[in-house]
Amino acid sequence: AQRVTQPEKLLSVFKGAPVELKCNYSYSGSPELFWYVQYSRQRLQLLLRHISRESIKGFTADLNKGETSFHLKKPFAQEEDSAMYYCALRINMFSGGYNKLIFGAGTRLAVHP
Amino acid sequence: DTAVSQTPKYLVTQMGNDKSIKCEQNLGHDTMYWYKQDSKKFLKIMFSYNNKELIINETVPNRFSPKSPDKAHLNLHINSLELGDSAVYFCASSQVAGAYGYTFGSGTRLTVV
User: Fold this and answer.
1) Burial class (CB in 10 A: 0-12, 13-18, 19+), B72
2) Of the candidates B87, B80, B110, B103, which has an alpha carbon nearest to the alpha carbon of residue B4?
3) What is the pLDDT of residue B96?
4) How does pLDDT run across B31-78, given as a tens digit for each residue?
5) Is there a contact between B90 and A86 if contact means CB atoms under 8 Å apart?
6) Chain A: closest CA distance from residue B23 (Å)
7) B36/B65 Cα distance (integer angstroms)
């Protein structure tokens, strides 16, 4: 079954502390994973794609196929990082390139001063 | 210069009514989607259209009918609204392959009373 699991509903840290938001996936095909961020009552914004291996706002994420994980990390959390974070897996539907994103349940990150 | 725009932003209506949500994208993307975010913040795909053609229908009740007059627009019409339809509905778009992820609209908060 295709599934994205984010085990933590809430992650609460102090400013300056390291952050790791966990994401595990289940998919028989070649996985393509994303992290999206949703600030309070705003649209979802793409944060990272595993393919690009970039660092955005200090966040990084590495795809670990052995552990089927794509954890999001930041060494020093800032108050403005407080938001809802979603891990997403792109599922190829059939030929033609059609696909859909399936999301984990999300983790709320709360960074306290 | 909004990339994916939805109207209205808020919608409060009574049970049994019929309502529509409109979505437009100016990114030149081929594919558009509707996602539902429930009260627990869980995101689930409802529909996907590619160049005005229905690609994905995720076992959504028949009361929900998407319409795509052209590839830049995907509207959602809901008949006989029920309390359980209360949610935030997000429109999104992508290129067919979706390798760069999806661009989301700001959402429509639907409240059925």
Assistant:
1) middle
2) B103
3) 61
4) 999 999 998 889 999 999 988 888 888 878 999 999 999 999 999 999
5) no
6) 14
7) 14
